[in-house]
Amino acid sequence: GDIKERLKEDDIRGGAFYLQQFEQMSSRLNYKPQELGDIKERLKEDDIRGGAFYCSLPSFRDSYRLVSRIIERNGQSVYLMLCSITNGKGMPMDKPDKLEVLSVELQNTIQQCLRKGDSFTKYSPSQFLILLVGTNKENCSMIFDRIQRYFSREHKSWKQYLDYFVSSVAEVDQQDSPIQFNTENKTW
């Protein structure tokens, strides 16, 4: 499917329903006026870990939209990377138990290998989307190499189970260039 459209649609896996429920609940909350310092304290992350910021798919979509708007203004380079777990032959992993183990390890790997300013989400059982801010196309392949090395540090054969595609956010947003995540003519 078209990842750009899935990120931009409001109805991601029932997301419109949950968003409506969230808005209804939020409208019922009555917060007293507070000082800016108190507000900032409430906005801080509870769990301050190093590495990339993991967020839900709806939050990632919002981050993607915000970053897209920002780069229109300042021209900073931002890339969208899709890391996929495969069967080792370029096709999606078809063994659920193995996929679960590899997926947990890939999430941990991405968290550990990327910078604090990068964000990522689990897009599907076998795929993670990563938003890489302030890098270039050449560095994206080095970033994937780092992810692949860390991912396979204990099980060298695991290296064969990862694949990736990368596109600049500016390219993704061009009307005439719909994003297609494929490798060797195999579309995901």
Descriptive report:
With 188 residues, this protein is α+β, with helices and mostly antiparallel strands. 44% of the residues lie in helices and 18% in strands. It is built from seven helices and seven strands; from the N terminus they run αααβαβαββαβαββ. It has helices at 3-8, 15-28, 36-43, 57-74, 96-113, 137-151, 169-172; strands at 53-54, 78-85, 119-124, 127-133, 162-168, 182-183, 186-187. α5 (96-113) crosses α6 (137-151).
Write out the CATH superfamily name.
Reverse transcriptase/Diguanylate cyclase domain
General form: globular
- Give the strand line-up of the largest sheet: 1-3-4-2-5
Low-confidence stretches: 176-188
CATH topology term: Alpha-Beta Plaits
**Helix content estimate:** 40-55%
| The CATH class | Alpha Beta
Calculate the mean pLDDT score and round it: 80
User: Which structural category do the helix and sheet elements fall into?
Assistant: alpha+beta
Instruction: Tally the helices.
Output: 7
Major pleated sheet: 5 strands, mixed
**The number of domains:** 1
Number of separate strands: 7
CATH architecture: 2-Layer Sandwich
Binned strand content? 15-25%
Give the CA-CA distance, first to last residue.
7 Å
Mind telling me the C-alpha Rg?
18 Å
Taken in chain order, the helices and strands follow as HHHEHEHEEHEHEE
InterPro entries: Nucleotide_cyclase, Rev_trsase/Diguanyl_cyclase
Organism: Coprococcus comes
Protein name: Transcriptional regulator
